[in-house]
Amino acid sequence: MASQITQNIDILKKSQQLDSEIYQSRLSLEEIPAQRTKLKSDLELEKTRLGELDKTLKDIQLKLKNKELELAQKEGQIKKLDGQLSQVKTNKEYGALQQEIASLKADNSLLEEEIIHILDEVEAAKEEAQKEKEKFALVSKSFQGKDDEFVAQEKTLRERLVELETQRKEAVAHLPPELGDLYSRIASKKQGLALALVNGEACTACQMQIRPQLINEIRLGDHIVVCENCSRILYFES
Ligand SMILES: [Zn+2]
Hints:
By secondary structure, the chain is mainly alpha-helical. It has a domain of 147 residues: Helix Hairpins. Helix content is 79%, strand content 4%. A three-stranded mixed sheet has the order 2-1-3. Helix 1 runs antiparallel to helix 2. The mean pLDDT is 95.
């Protein structure tokens, strides 16, 4: 009788090894879609950022062009008014023209300052866009490789799971049906860990003390004993 229990415990230990790996493999498998999504969204993020920086650069360049155009127009006006100076007949008209010219010149000196400032902005925006372009190139280069790795990993895990589940089924089939069912029930609730080694008088899974009577029952080995705290099947290392 005792040897039967020992034999069953050995089968349970083997099943537990398999269940534990099944649990971990499923966990890894479940994480892959989120990891792939994250990878893709990181790439999208860089792409969006690059698009935004390109747009910022274009906006600043357009602003520069408009200011340069405005400056050229005002310079044209000044030239025209300068030409009219020699043709006016009264001092009053002369004074008015001069005032207009002075006002345009004042506008232009402000415009020139603005243009110098915008040129700095263009340089900074160009630099930032270039940096992002390089970053995007790096991210998109590594993206495909990483994604392929995830796909390969997924395939390997699925194949391994099929193997493990077959082996587990075979192992559990060697147990008496009720024990097999009990074991499977506990394993599914305890992340594949349905067994707990007894160390001294404590369950090593939940660390709780085990009653002396139960310790005796485990030692006698004529039936399966479960931990009163964590419900795992208790065993001594033989
Ligand atoms: Zn326990």
